[in-house]
Structure formats: C-alpha cells, structure tokens
Write a structure and sequence with these properties.
single chain; 166 residues; mainly beta; 6-stranded antiparallel β-sheet; 5-stranded antiparallel β-sheet; globular
C-alpha cells in the first residue's frame, strides 16, 4: 500500500476524533469504536497535556465485532512510538509494548504524544472482529488540559468505506 502523492490527503485518509479534552480514565477512557472493515490500516494518535499531580493512563486496545462494542476483547500490540516531552523535542521514539499495554508519562506539566499502528490483519477477523478502540484507565492530572485520541483510517478497500458504521 502506498499513498498517491498527487491526491489530497483527505481523499486517502479517513480521520475520526475518538476523544477530546478529557482524562483517559474509567468510562471517559472508553473511546469511540471505528470499523476497519473497509480499511487496511489504522493509525492511532494519543496526545496528552498534563497539569500537576499526574497519574499516567494505562493504554490498551480493544476489538469488537460491531462499533457498539459487541463481543469486546483485548487486541494485542507490541510496539508504539512515544514522545514524553513534546515541548523539548519533536522526535518520536519506537518503544516496545509489554503485555499489550503501556502507561503514559507521569511527569507534571508535560505534553506527550503516542502513536500506535494497527493492521486490519491484526484483528481476529476469522471470528468477525473488525472494530477497534483505545481504552485508557487511571489518568489524573489536576488542572490538566486533558487528552485527545485521533484515528486515521488508511487504505480504503473500496470507495465510500464507512468508519463509524458496521
């Protein structure tokens, strides 16, 4: 799969805002599901602007058979890109993920950025799993500006592929 440099980006990528301006904790960390049925790859971007008294968010991925969360179960992943002090450097560092989860940074007043990529083949497609979401728990940041989770669905398998419907 390669992008067409002569086409507009919005013609090649479907972007979905999964969460914005909240702490990734308990049910607030249950972001929107997207369907990968019509796409080959999902890029997940997580941005966090912490205040003080920071507690990192534990990030996992979930898969389901429908965007309503039907049959939800864990989705395995082993790597991500991280920048735990975005103000100091714009460099993303490839980071190994252990046991399909990682915790965001815990230093006060730091902005951090995380990127996870999911191939459609990573899902349990044999059993009808084609939907994905980020699950965040435990985040606290007094006076923090919260977080955002953005999904970029890439490689539409057909014209008009829908991301928010089954």
């Amino acid at each position: 799969m390669s992008g067409n440099l002569n086409a507009r980006q919005d013609e090649q990528v479907t972007t979905v805002m999964a969460a914005i301006g909240l702490l990734l904790t308990s049910t607030l960390g249950d972001t929107t599901y997207v369907s990968m049925k019509g796409y080959s790859k999902l890029q997940i971007i997580i941005g966090i602007a912490d205040g003080t008294t920071v507690t990192g968010s534990t990030i996992t991925l979930k898969q389901a058979t429908a965007v309503a969360g039907t049959g939800e179960k864990a989705l395995a992943f082993t790597r991500m890109l991280a920048n735990t002090d975005y103000a100091a450097s714009k460099t993303m560092v490839e980071t190994a993920v252990t046991s399909n989860t990682f915790t965001t940074q815990t230093t006060n007043s730091k902005d951090s950025l995380y990127i996870i990529e999911v191939d459609a083949d990573d899902l349990d497609v044999a059993n009808g799993f084609d939907c994905v979401r980020v699950d965040g728990t435990g985040h606290a940041a007094t006076s923090g500006r919260g977080a955002f989770v953005l999904y970029n669905l890439i490689g539409a398998r057909y014209t008009g592929a829908a991301a928010l419907t089954d």
